[in-house]
Write a structure and sequence with these properties.
InterPro entries: Phage_phiJL001_Gp84, Phage_phiJL001_Gp84_C
Number of domains: 2
Protein name: Putative phage protein (TIGR02218 family)
Domain Bacteriophage phiJL001 Gp84 C-terminal: 196-278
CATH class of the largest domain: Mainly Beta
Distance between the termini: 60 Å
Structural class: mainly beta
Pfam families: Phage_BR0599 (PF09356), Phage_phiJL001_Gp84_N (PF09931)
Shape: extended
Number of strands: 16
Helix content: under 10%
Amino acid sequence: MSGEFNAGLEAHLKGGLTTVCHAWAITRKDGVVFAFTDHDLPLRFAGFEFRADAGLSALALAQSTGLSVDNTEALGALSDVSLREDEIEQGRFDGAQIQAWLVNWADTSQHWLNFRGHLGELTRAGGGFRAELRGLTEALNRPLGRVYQKPCSAVLGDRTCRFKLTQEGYAQALPVQTVTDARRFVWEDFLSYDTDWFTRGRLEMLDGPATGLWGGIKSDRIIGTARVIELWQPIRGSVQSGMQIRLVAGCDKRVETCRLKFNNFANFQGFPDLPGEDWVVSVPSSSNVNSGGSRR
């Protein structure tokens, strides 16, 4: 979306001979900020310091007034001093906020915010990357609303669930003992929780190159004296023995789990008494329960 056009910049553009360039700022979800310009010297304005090291350059900036996705792309170079390939691979730039300006490099008070949105799909090749830029109207294309279903629709610990994961017994920090392919974790004599306690929960990295990354837990089993936890997908970063992780209890969204495991039934966001699809064939019966389902 476009910002208010700067009067000074407008006058400068109408003068014929211009000294303008582009500038971009990327703000990741973890708060890390990257700012670049295609000018040959660094610039400072809008609270950012823009580096002049070819971190990003625009291919096209086509915006529309409807709800269609803006045809907007950018090219960038991968390097240790700008955007690193391993951080893109780890997903640290997924959904990052991006702002783009047209600025008079001779007088940086003359600048215009001509795009604001977030990073979409990123592809990497030949030491560089291509990023899809999605405008603010992209969010309006997503279906929203409440789904009426028996399972709970909340995420454990969110503002609708309201369960405090800081309560004792629902999260455990400990070092990695044995790890295979950043996906299968094994601990000896870690039996203080029931089997499946962490199934559908989270494994969060607390230190090392993968700090801040997490994976969904597919299974939590006890085999002999060992606890084996397997993730749905590998952690997208280096994971080694001795690194600190945090295990968060899992929730299968059932009303029984909410009431018995978390004692949080008052905040259950499902509809456990919602009739099933075959309720229309239910008829009274004096001999047994006739719910419309199979009698076997």
